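Cross-posting from the modeling subforum.

Setting up a comparison between two proteins and wanted a second pair of eyes on the formatting. Protein 1 (sequence, then structure tokens):
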Amino acid sequence: MIAALWCCGAWAQAPNAATKLGLPPDAAAAMQGIDAQRIRAHVRFLADDLLEGRGTGTRGGDIAAQYIAAQFALDGLQPAGDDGTFLQKVEFTGVHTLPGTTVLLQSHGGKALELRLSDDYVVGNQRQTDSADIDAPIVFVGYGIDAPEYRWNDYKGVDVKGKVVLVIVNEPPSKDPKFFNGEALTYYGRWMYKFEEAARQGAVGALIIHRTDLASYGWDVVRNSWGGETVYLSGEREPKLEAAAWIRTTVAEQLFAAAGLKLDDMIAAAGRRKFKARELPIRFKAHIASQVRKFDSYNVIGILPGTDPGPARQALIYTAHYDHLGVDPSMPGHNIYNGAVDNGTGCGILLELARAYTASALRPPHPVLFAAVTAEEKGLLGSNYLGKHLPIPAARVALDLNYDAVPPIGEPESVNVEGAERTSFYPTVEKTARAFGFEIQPDAEPGAGHYYRSDHFSLARAGIPAFSINSALKFAGHPPEWGRAQREDYTANRYHRPADQYRPEMDFSSNATLAKFGFALGWQALAAADTVHWLPGDEFEAARLRSSAAP
């Protein structure tokens, strides 16, 4: 059955696609040489227990970095890291919240509600000290957003300096594309923004109310992601919180009830323009104990130089993160977060793309960078650092194509390229999808804010047009409902869980086909007469203009 699908699906379209797209014969041959079994071999190694979940700053994570660097060297890429190596050192501070941490919600004249770490809340001390003691009032600030372009400011008329803000995950509900981008989540709805804005406003802490339907993932994902060490880039000067926390919906219900209010009513009120922040008759009392360590991890960067003389003008970057969640020693049984799909698959594709480009008898006119980044699971930190310390200035990079968690479940007949439509490159994306026989499908979960949850976002913040390539819901031999069911099953049972393991029955034809698709896109960007730019008015256009103006 699999072989039959290969013959009939987009895999068989690739030779014809190369012809339709006008790729040079040598480049087309290199694209055709992309091999699903090579991708499989990379994923199998990276997801092995030997690598202990590839945690940031751990032995297993370093093994993964060295493996990728060795593959880049074998392919013939030139090192683009530090001191003539493939490794770009990134300095981190790790903060692990200890069991001695306590949190109480104390209402005026009422009984204190003692919360249970991991079960009721998770918390991290962004100020990176061994301990923090907080006794501060709680202020409900709705969605915790200050967005002048949408005439929205949840902090208007309230002073939260030295206080703890209570915020809702996500953003005000909307179907108007001109108001918080309609049903598609913007960065304002992401948890990273909530903490950043609270710190800018002078708060000492922030409590994000988790709700599965709004967050697009369950409490287990929050607990698993925050239950271990939280990692920060060392040397950052931005304001930070002493308590960056999530609380469960049931805790939020009890908190509002103690103030004589109902959670659902307050969420509804927060979605209206007339909403006003209010201080609640409840104090947040906490002792946060942390284990703090300094350590290094590495981005792995290789470069294939272009044939055009002089400085790079429109280089291309392929990215994928190699880190995952490491090991949970407190968990019985299998406690390694192997991260086969997330993101062994993206790394396998990245490595196979590097091999394909270097195997081509025809070299591209402009440089091609291949970057396997660290600490994505810690908040896109490795790519954040990369975007600020690129081997080639951002203004001279035309495009970043990112791969993250590509499901190895068979031949895709549809793709998701969310964010491509925001760039001048989108007509090329549409043309290439047609050539491959792909339907471009919108994000099946627009409210999940996927564009802001992977490493292309860091490159976009640096001004570089960037998006991820992934399969959508249609696969050869199956109705769309099957693809949706596969996605939901992965999210419910394996995403950010030790169950995300390599299995022999995985079908990496999807990974190979999307690698070919990305090769075709990248080659066209390199061969284009003009570089890619953001469309006028896009939120990243200003960053692109700033990078172009930089000396």
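Protein 2 (same layout):
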Amino acid sequence: MFLIPGDSPVGYRLPFESLPWTKPEDVAYSYDPDPFERRLSLPEKPERKRYLFSEPTFTDDAEPAADHAKPPEKGESAAWIARPALCIEPREGKLFVFMPPVQYLSDYLDLVAAIEDTAAYLKMPVLLEGYAPPSDPRIAVLKVTPDPGVIEVNVHPAASWDELVRTTTALYHLARQSRLGTEKFMLDGQHSGTGGGNHVVIGGATPDDSPFLRRPDLLRSLVGYWHNHPSLSYLLSGMFIGPTSQHPRVDEARTDSIYELEIAFDQIPDKGAPPVPPWLVDRVFRHLLTDLTGNTHRAEFCIDKLYSPESASSRLGLVELRAFEMPPHARMSLTQQLLVRALIAHFWRNPYRRKLVWWGTTLDDRFLLPHFVQLDWEDVVADLREAGYAFQKDWFAPHFEFRFPLIGSITRRGMRLELRHALEPWHVLGEETSGSTTVRNVDSSVERLQVKITGVTDSRYVVLCNGRRVPLHATGERGEWVAGVRYRAWQPPSCLHPNIPVHTPLVFDIVDTWSGRAIGGCEYHVTHPGGRAHETFPVNASEAESRRLARFRDIGHTPGIIAVPDEERNPEFPLTLDLRRMSQPRPTEAVKAASP
């Protein structure tokens, strides 16, 4: 037999079509084991005798060779031929052993033990490749996979909080020793995550132990609570959010998704109800927890491996929470995981049954600003404290500063004007042809920041951005107002409204309406104000900080008399000033008189 030509490992190039013919009814098929099957403890590693290279002995009374040792006749079914094969290949100066697919974990481990004993006897190191062991809850598997731009590590399940702490801490420590980072700096110095997910997978050691199959109301509680508290969706996620992201919210897809979700919630039995079939929760939520295209994996709550009917490997009773990004420090990651554990424990005892909120455009107006995200997050912490879990809101202060970094602030006449980064969804654009392929770009050219001013006691002072009035909203605290500003940060050839130019630098003025003059102001530049083009990324945090500081200037304001424009308050987005929209001119008296 000759291998199929190529440079892949030998196990991928076996000429199975050259093997003797076998009747279809004689082929031994292997099937995935039932995930609900009770498994015995794994056997101990066998002790093997050292009989390698021993000379065989033959006697006249030896048993004749079996029939299956003879080559099959023409047209005869060779059912005894083994298709899976252990392949050994020297390649690139190393000896590779290609593992074949096996049905049972014990067989795989026995084969690995034989390879280890042989390699130890010959004092010859080998490298294993090929098929991974079959999925089995009796072994802990840690997988390291190269992904575009990141190294993905799938950590084995933790049976206790102490084990979870040890695993997470060791993972961060080993990554740092390998010169791998859990944070990065953009060209402009902005501190951000790596883009990789810090997804949390919840379940049991076996599907029988899964809390979501035993108590479907637990998943209903999590989905409902996450929906009513948008800060859980946005505070711990990455820069890519919105309906076309990797983890869209349920209400970011279809306009009627909340109505359909309420119907689904009514089908879930409450706590204390008789046991339900395990497939119920999958059938109820499968077509709701998806993205715009119906992809069940790209969802905030992914139930691909809960109880999908496609295969046994998908019926594991697992739920994946995907709206988490890899934080820069191990303790920040542990704080996120502790939050999830506490919410699960809380909803296990007290299911969540509040009515779902129809957020509408409020989701893209209010909860993309750090002020309202923080208020909502304080409600989450208060709920946990009331349930008996001693959470502190200060535990998540690093998450807020990392997610919503301070741009700069100025103080004039007892008033403090503060600018912070806010959230802005990235949307996938229409299909375009690039070279010989079809691509769909992501529009990240629009950014948003939060404007907060404190110390204002009356309507004498207003805030302008590039000469347009910022729609300030009272927060409820004395003299505190907040608003958001959307602007075009850069102008790529492919984006929404590509004809709209860049709006930066953003010039903010605190205007005294009594005198018609600005008493102070500041400037924010997306790039270096001196026009310096950074062709390389910052090498460390100090260089990144210097770039951030250079983009904010706490001096300068618009000189002379300023004609204060009317407030541009969009009823759909009342807290946001969108600089992409043209300002409406103040109507003349003649136009006012002619208006009905």
